[in-house]
Amino acid sequence: MLKTKQKIAFARLVQAVVMSVRKLVGLNSITEVTRSGVRWELDLDEGIDFSIWLLGCFEPETVRCYKKIVKEGDVVLDIGANIGAHTLLLGDTVGERGKVIAFEPTDYAFSKLSKNCALNPRLASRIHCLQCMVVGSEIAGSPTPNLYSSWPLKEEIGLHDLHHGRLMTTAGAQANTLDSIISAKELDRVDCIKLDIDGFECEMLRGAREVLTRWHPTIIMELAPYVLEEQGASLGELIQLLKEYGYALYELSTGAPLVMDAAKLQLMIPRGAGFNVIARPSSPTAH
User: Fold this and answer.
1) Is residue 260 exposed (0-12), middle (13-18) or buried (19+ Cβ within 10 Å)?
2) How far apart are CA 13 and CA 85, in angstroms?
3) What is the CATH number of the domain that holds 252?
4) How many domains does the chain have?
5) Which domain holds residue 280?
6) What does the pLDDT look like over 207-221, one tens digit per residue?
7) How far is CA 216 from each of CA 46, 73, 93, 196, 235, rounded to the nearest angstrom?
8) pLDDT of amino acid 185
């Protein structure tokens, strides 16, 4: 299992070659392209953008997973949407009768998310973007912290030691529990959640009790113990919360069950690494 730092290092090598060729023909890092039927404005100096440009999508294994899970007409939450790398593909997957709600708190990524949605009016009509940080409890006037939402492919001062992310501001973001947001939107169900919020997963889950116990949506999420620890949480705490909601973990690609034991799972994940998994109700009666 490659660490995030190793993935970024490899991407930097490939990107350096690509940018050298682009510069020779008078092109810069900003480009507008169509990939997988979606129109994108991309900055090839950014890791997520470069992945979409090069591979056609970001995290191909995750895309393959939700293409199997999500059905036409579903309601999907993309929590930690960033530039919309999964939001727009999910919008395509749910079809005209479906709905995607995308949550992104940083002003940097939210602006790019909004632009990419605007480039795809066919999909934008079924996507609702919120500049919001999903929290465990709401405290009036509580500021939202700076968060990682940029992974530059050039060395610079101040990047995260392990995953090489850049902190970005959350100016203008609201801080709400998932339960309060979904209640205000008067949704009649939530079918699937794509969750990628770099260590804030435990907080999000605490504020989602009603959503998870009422509708039992399938969750596609990352297990990355080191970012949980940076936010004062732990893999053990995350596993315990999932158990309390009646969820079990499964491998993303095969669907095979994973042990719900934090110590054993920790042994599978090198320091500075993480991998995506599926969380779904452990009992068939919960669906």
Assistant:
1) middle
2) 22
3) 3.40.50.150
4) 1
5) 58-286
6) 999 999 999 999 999
7) 35, 17, 20, 18, 21
8) 92
